[in-house]
Amino acid sequence: MALQQLTLGLNPIQGLVVIPSGSRSRTNLRSPGHHPAAWGIQKGKRNRSGVGECRCQLGLVGAAAGVVEMVEKLNALVLGVGVGLPCQVMDCGDVVYRSTLPKQGLIITAPGVALALLVATYLWSQPGVAPGFWDMFVLAKLEQIIRPSYKKEDFVLGKKLGEGAFGTVYKASLVKSKSGKSDSELVVKKANQYGAVEVWMNERVRRACSSSCADFIDGFRESKRKGKGDEFWLVWRYEGDATLDDLMKDKDFPYNVEQMIYGRVDELPKGPERENRIIRTIMRQIMSSLKNLHAIGIVHRDIKPQNIIFSQDAKSFKIIDLGAAADLRVGINYVPNEFLLDPRYAAPEQYIMSTQTPSAPPPPVAAALSPVLWQMNVPDRFDVYSAGLIFLQMVFPNLRTDGSLIQFNRQLKRCDYNMVKWRQSTEARNNPDFRRGFELLDRDEGVGWELLQAMIRFKGRQRISAKQALDHPFFIRDGLLGLTFLQKLRLQLIRTSFQDRSEAFAWVQNLMAKSGTKSVGGFTEAELQKLKDKEPKAKDTVSRNALASALKLQRKVARTIATVGEPANKRNWWNRWESTN
Ligand SMILES: Nc1ncnc2c1ncn2[C@@H]1O[C@H](COP(=O)(O)OP(=O)(O)OP(=O)(O)O)[C@@H](O)[C@H]1O
Question: Do residues 217 and 179 lie in contact, with contact meaning Cβ atoms separated by under 8 Å?
Fold first, then answer.
């Protein structure tokens, strides 16, 4: 401000100033403090560069030149600091010659960059609004043009592979191959009206993460005879004869999988180490597929060994049967309170979203709000629980039958879904199958047991995600000892963010205890006990209030979604699957 006053304060010395032609910078000529009118300078002719030719009114040339120099310096300072009247701190151009105004370009400012980053983060965060638009309006359209389309006459149906509530599955072959690849062995599912959803999911997966699920070839609608409705035909490449369920029923599991996934048999003697290695590979493949599905906003909702097939070509396990899946990017197949689930493998919450969340809104609205709803409900953790049960069955041979799994579910419920309590009650029975299983899980400082606990938790939010699970040391070959410092740090982060507060506190407590006593900046045991006593109860007022506010916000968002009407252009993308009846 002092500088401004000084600059402005010089203005009254009108008539004293002489501005020699060409001696002033353009900036100074344009500032009001130096404007010819303000300085009492009579303008003569101006050349095209905007520098005026000035004539002095008084003859005090020498003194004035010194003052001009000083004013120029002050002005440069004002401009540099960015404090001053509008045309002092920015280029306002010349009143007469507008062409001297600065060109309007993109001005990058810190708040602008921060806002752009925030918007980009939102649009790209799970389940991905921006990639979703690209997928739906560009890739899907391109695919429709490029890919060959089929009709039922193109296939010869063979052996029946299975029959479910939604359709019948056959082995099939093509009458005449349309693509370059050998299409000799195929699988065809003749499905009822729910087949439309399965086609949608399979097409999404094929575009985004084809290696995670069975190789989908085409889906089309066929009209049945009058009054019988439509039928959907779904065609996949035949991946192989064995599902994980088939393989797990074999007494030799997991050794029967070894040759299939590694192409050779390990030299190690049979035992926990070798079994651990095979189970780890299977789990890694399941979790990677889940991670890919969740990354594009698809929750499978029916993860079980029967829906995991071994692909002979890819030499890995893939997911099948997307009929119950929900696409939470656009809300396809999401119906609140829906109960499609297999109770043996379903997570205790039963629903992937809060029951307060209404039916899916129109896709553009659902897409725009999907990151918020995803973060609020973490629906992906439903599949993680089911995958946790598969892990459990692989480790404990005596839990591989339906009856024993149902029994386990009951026991766990009785233990309040606390795996530690379940372990205590199980170990007391001294069953050799359980003993061997725990031995396997306790290897490498118990990383397997830790991962299992992180997957099988009552609250979805406290469960580990598929992506985080893949970062867990269980999946790192050398176990905890082989971890780098950064990996260990990341592990601690995963541990603390997914454990109960009491467990997180125990970890901090342990860390502090290890760091020494008071003399070296740590805490004594008595002090730690005091701290522990101060740890708030799980249901204190603050957490209750926070929970209530979150639920309130969720209901508000849900109500907003529900009030938005159906868009007119729905026909463009979904109606090709709508029944004509
Ligand atoms: N791509 C594939 N390659 C090989 N076999 C397959 C493939 N897809 C499905 N199958 C076989 O067909 C069976 C039934 O498939 P799928 O689970 O998709 O049908 P479904 O009608 O939904 O059955 P369910 O209702 O029992 O789950 C599977 O268990 C598997 O054995």
Answer: no
In terms of domains, do 294 and 342 share one? yes
- Tell me, in angstroms, the distance from the centre of ligand 1 to residue 320's CA: 7
What atom of ligand 1 comes closest to residue 166's alpha carbon? 21
Q: Please indicate, yes or no, whether residues 267 and 221 belong to a single structural domain of this protein.
A: no
Residue with the smallest CA separation from ligand 1 atom 21 is 164
No. of H helices and E strands in the chain? 24, 11
Integer Cα distance of 86 and 77 in angstroms: 15
Judged on CB neighbours under 10 Å (0-12, 13-18, 19+), 297 is buried
Q: What is the residue with the minimal CA distance to atom 25 of ligand 1?
A: 164
Predicted ipTM of the assembly? 0.96
CA dihedral 268, 273, 274, 276 (to 10 degrees): -170
157 shares its domain with 170: yes
CB atoms within 10 A of CB 362: 17
pLDDT, tens digit, 9 for 90 and up, residues 80-133: 555 666 666 666 666 666 666 666 677 888 888 999 999 999 888 888 888 888
Contacts of 407 (CB under 8 A, 6+ apart): none
Q: Which residue bears the tokens 């995958």?
A: 387
| CA distance to 14, 398, 509, 532, per residue, from 525 (Å) | 81, 42, 9, 10
Pocket of ligand 1 contains residue 186 by CB under 6 Å: no
Specify the pTM: 0.69
Q: Are 302 and 267 in contact (CB under 8 A)?
A: no
Contact 341, 324 (CB under 8 A): yes
Residue 314 has pLDDT above 90, yes or no: yes
Here the CATH number for the domain that contains residue 137 is: 3.30.200.20
Locate 184 and state its tokens: 């000799």
Q: Are residues 219 and 354 in the same domain?
A: no
Quote the CA–CA distance of 136 and 473 in Å, as a whole number. 37
Within 13 Å and on the Cβ side, how many CA atoms surround 492? 12
Ligand 1 nearest atom to the CA of residue 306, by list position:
29
With a 6 Å cutoff on the Cβ, whether 132 touches ligand 1 is no
